[in-house]
Design brief:
This protein is of the alpha/beta class. It is built from five helices and five strands; from the N terminus they run E-H-H-E-H-E-H-E-E-H.
């Protein structure tokens, strides 16, 4: 039975807390992962957190999520690969489980090259601009999309 949410973070998200804190805040990825695990325990769902700076590794993790038959949904922050990676776009499109795109900053209000997401069209939805709280919104959306909770 699929009872796990995969929270997948892409390039440079391992540097949260020290990388451009005016845009991304001062909370570290480890702090966030602890928060997400507490949220998951409170909501009766398992959570797995992964991060990679490598496109191929992220793609492998997406494919594994589908194949393992444990992951019900993916919360995915592809970082700057959001704007360039056709491979990640195609990998997401091949999944039968929902993928929720998340961004800490509002990509629509950033530099011109960041305003278009190549993965958005194949994701169940996108959340951006709410800081790290956006992850909790995405986790809640994952519960709704998988029928574990209603709106």
């Amino acid at each position: 039975m699929r009872n796990e949410i995969l929270v997948l973070n892409g390039p440079n998200l391992n540097a949260l807390g020290r990388r451009e804190p005016e845009k991304y805040g001062s909370t570290t990825l480890a702090d966030l992962e602890k928060q997400w695990r507490e949220w998951a325990a409170h909501n009766g769902v398992a959570i797995r957190c992964e991060q990679s700076n490598h496109e191929g590794v992220l793609l492998d993790l997406l494919h594994q999520a589908e194949e393992e038959e444990q992951v019900a949904a993916v919360v995915f922050n592809p970082g700057a690969l959001t704007h360039t990676s056709r491979a990640l776009r195609d990998g997401i499109a091949s999944l039968t489980i929902p993928v929720i795109e998340i961004h800490i900053s509002n990509i629509a209000a950033r530099e011109e090259w960041r305003r278009h997401s190549v993965v958005a069209e194949v994701c169940a939805g996108s959340i951006a601009g709410f800081g790290t709280a956006g992850y909790l919104l995405a986790l809640k959306a994952a519960l709704i999309l998988t029928g574990r909770e209603s709106c």
